[in-house]
Design a protein that fits this description.
Two copies of one chain form a homodimer.
Chain A lengths: L3 H11 L8 E2 L2 H7 L2 E6 L9 H11 L2 H5 L2 E4 L3 H13 L3 E6 L4 H9 L3 E5 L3 H15 L2 E2 L6 H17 L5 E5 L4 H13 L4 E7 L4 H8 L21 H9 L3 E5 L1 H15 L9 H8 L8 E6 L12
Parallel strand pairs in A: 2-10, 3-4, 3-6, 4-5, 7-8, 7-10, 8-9
Antiparallel strand pairs in A: 1-2
Chain lengths: 312, 312
Amino acid sequence: MVTLEHIHQAHERIRPYVHQTPVLTSQAINRMVDADLHFKCENLQKVGAFKARGAMNAVLLLDDDTARRGVVTHSSGNHAQALAYAAKLRSIPCTIVMPNNAPAVKQDAVREYGAEVVLCEATLASRLATMEQIVETTGAHPVPPYNDERVIAGQGTLALELLEQVPSLEVVMAPIGGGGLMSGIATAVRGMRPDTRIIGAEPEIAADALESMHTGVLQPPANTFTIADGLRTGLGEITFAHLQAADVEILTASEEAIREATYRIMERLKVVIEPSAAVTLAVLLEHPGIVRGRTVGIVLCGGNIDIRRLAI
Amino acid sequence: MVTLEHIHQAHERIRPYVHQTPVLTSQAINRMVDADLHFKCENLQKVGAFKARGAMNAVLLLDDDTARRGVVTHSSGNHAQALAYAAKLRSIPCTIVMPNNAPAVKQDAVREYGAEVVLCEATLASRLATMEQIVETTGAHPVPPYNDERVIAGQGTLALELLEQVPSLEVVMAPIGGGGLMSGIATAVRGMRPDTRIIGAEPEIAADALESMHTGVLQPPANTFTIADGLRTGLGEITFAHLQAADVEILTASEEAIREATYRIMERLKVVIEPSAAVTLAVLLEHPGIVRGRTVGIVLCGGNIDIRRLAI
């Protein structure tokens, strides 16, 4: 299990390579939900998402012999870019396995960091088999996107910053997909401020984490097409254990509320976010009064959306 | 004429009511133009634009008797919201004259700050007559959007911050519409660091400031529909004098480059900007090498764009 001490160490380790992201507020949004919200802008993080923290921590923890053989992961999302970024900083090879239907723009994004893209069939079996083959032939070290203690410790570092930036924090909210982000945050916050209320936000149509927490049994991903595309994955065994240990509360939001919250955040905070980053505010819009009068920290997890669909 | 001293005083005066906005960088954008760019994010300023600074300074400078009778301006843009915001903070009445074809969302935005909206015909003559009438009947004090020394001094305060945030600055760039922003910046920068290169950016199809500087005669606005809608106005006599005194260089960009630069900034910096804020980067995209190897400060003037046109 990841401890607060691991997260402090990770913070020292990755600090030179990631941004201490700013916290933004909006009086207009505060009035909408009758609370004092502080948005931690991980969309302004390196590679546009908190994922830079976890990947950086995992890569820096490798011993030189392992590192030399490179790292590998399967992802077409933010973790792919994050790992490519971290590998480039350490000047080691990086291979990203992507399904052959991954958009060219996502392939190019990781190539820009010097990573190699290996395409596979768009099935989980093919991804795993392709990755396995790369590991066997190159000796590359796999860095999973969330179900990994080094990654979890890295993500948790943002909570240390948030607690310093907003000392009066009473509630912390973050979205839950694979659970790496929330595992890190919850571990840090429970360690530093045990009484803080910790709320994970999930799309109503992909509420597998909620179901896992309620039943006490790890559920598979919902396999639906929520617009919060970063949250389509399910928990892993390691992240599930951390969410249980930290007693994380989970609330859900409808697709319509997620869409509306995405617009409101971009309108009011003037930052670009992906819909996954708006599920937290969507929860507050649909459960008015749930944090009434409280000081709330909300993690904007990422900003990777196709902005060219905006007609100018 | 506004002096550096006025700008320092304005900074002390408005500091409690405006944000010290962050400066963001992107290695990907730096590679595009082969320079070290630092984006001063006035789109993250109160009301989403630098205009909060100038309006705040003007309102705080009013004596109590004048202030009590309120303030008035004609604008359907960012200055309207800025004046409404400043008036609300001083708890004085504010009237905004808008053309009757102004979008409801812009009318609502100023009403949210408690200002009264008075509609008029969509001609300059009608705006001025309507404003004149309000001044006569209520004794309200007019606060112009840019051709005003108090406003110019307020806008200049952002340059003081920028010079502190990026001490190695060699070039400063900002868009030019009415010229209030650039008048303040150029005055501050010439005063603090005389050797700095100061570049104003203008749409090619609305290059009246360029023409004014070249001919030495104040030109009327170009009356075209550049997508950089905040830059459709022409210089005023006061702003023109400041641009001349500070020897501001002016470069232009095509509509296509402005559109492309708008996307690139939102993609890479993950902040929401209006097209007017992208004319500076557009200039660099169209004049490759013009600031090669230099440390450049670029002002992102505002973020008020209709983000709901983005399909999610």
